[in-house]
């Protein structure tokens, strides 16, 4: 009995150590957003200040890069959620010719290295004389995040009770009304989860984006390009705000899901 309790305590301690280790880079980022640096280097603590929050948008190139990332992430997320939800519904609800191949391709896209995907997309765009800009970045982000939405929605669809939709149709609801009033609310947690994952994958992507961006600079590309000259403190502030927004959205989604249940 005592040995079991000691083992449980060690497991809890180990779990918290892993959580702290994984959270330490985020904690450092938040901390150095308040660093009163007096040189280009922002790697040593030099005092506390709120200056960088007041001067958040003083670096025009950085602000433009962040705006590009947000626009691309929102656009790719909307497209991915719409297509991924429909495909997830089809794969979870129906068996059709080619469904096995489709499932294979969905999981193959998840396992494909970003380097391979970026290089293949670059070859496609170059061979087709497609100008590389924000549109090609959106196309690339949709391709590598689509599978995550499909898998998330499909997993939810296969657990749905078909009798609920049958009852709605028996009561006179058409196909669209049944989907809007019964099916969509039931799968909405999965749709939102897939959308959040798609947004996160898009806004922090560097590898694939670096192949297809052309002259468009996103937030991750700007940061990597600024490494040689020194990362400004505004980068840490922007990262902190993005992280905080993500946490608030995740908490809000969890609270809403608990209320629905």
TrEMBL record:
Q: Where in the cell is it found?
A: Cell membrane
Q: Which Gene3D superfamilies does this chain map to?
A: MetI-like
Keyword hit for Signal: no
The record's annotation in SUPFAM superfamilies points to: MetI-like (SSF161098)
Query: Principal place where this protein is found?
Result: membrane
| Transferase in keyword set | no
UniProt keyword list: Cell membrane, Membrane, Transmembrane, Transmembrane helix, Transport
Which residues are the signal sequence here?
Answer: none
InterPro entries the record matches:
Bact_Polyamine_Transport, MetI-like, MetI-like_sf
- Positions of the ABC transmembrane type-1 domain: 66-253
List the membrane topology term(s).
Multi-pass membrane protein
Q: Please give the biological process terms from Gene Ontology that the record holds.
A: transmembrane transport
Transmembrane regions listed in the UniProt entry: 12-34, 72-92, 104-126, 138-157, 178-203, 237-256
Give the record's GO CC terms: plasma membrane
Family listed: Belongs to the binding-protein-dependent transport system permease family. CysTW subfamily.
| Protein name per the record | ABC transporter permease
């Amino acid at each position: 009995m005592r040995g079991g309790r000691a083992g449980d305590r060690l497991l809890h301690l180990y779990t918290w150590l892993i959580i702290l280790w994984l959270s330490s880079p985020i904690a450092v980022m938040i901390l150095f957003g308040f660093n009163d640096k007096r040189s280009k280097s922002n790697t040593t603590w030099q005092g506390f200040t709120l200056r960088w929050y007041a001067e958040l948008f003083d670096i025009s190139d950085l602000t433009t890069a962040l705006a590009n990332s947000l626009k691309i992430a929102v656009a790719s997320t909307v497209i991915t959620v719409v297509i991924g939800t429909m495909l997830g519904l089809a794969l979870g609800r129906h068996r059709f010719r080619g469904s096995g191949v489709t499932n294979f391709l969905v999981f193959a896209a998840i396992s494909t290295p970003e380097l391979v995907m970026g290089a293949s997309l670059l070859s496609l765009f170059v061979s087709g004389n497609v100008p590389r800009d924000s549109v090609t970045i959106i196309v690339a982000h949709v391709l590598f995040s689509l599978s995550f939405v499909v898998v998330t929605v499909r997993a939810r669809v296969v657990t749905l009770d078909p009798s609920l939709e049958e009852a709605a149709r028996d009561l006179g609801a058409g196909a669209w009304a049944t989907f809007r009033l019964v099916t969509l609310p039931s799968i909405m947690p999965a749709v939102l989860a897939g959308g959040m994952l798609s947004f996160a994958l898009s806004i922090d992507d560097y590898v694939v984006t670096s192949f297809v961006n052309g002259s468009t600079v996103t937030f991750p590309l700007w940061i990597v390009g600024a490494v040689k000259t020194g990362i400004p403190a505004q980068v840490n502030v922007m990262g902190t705000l993005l992280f905080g927004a993500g946490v608030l959205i995740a908490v809000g989604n969890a609270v809403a899901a608990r209320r629905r249940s």
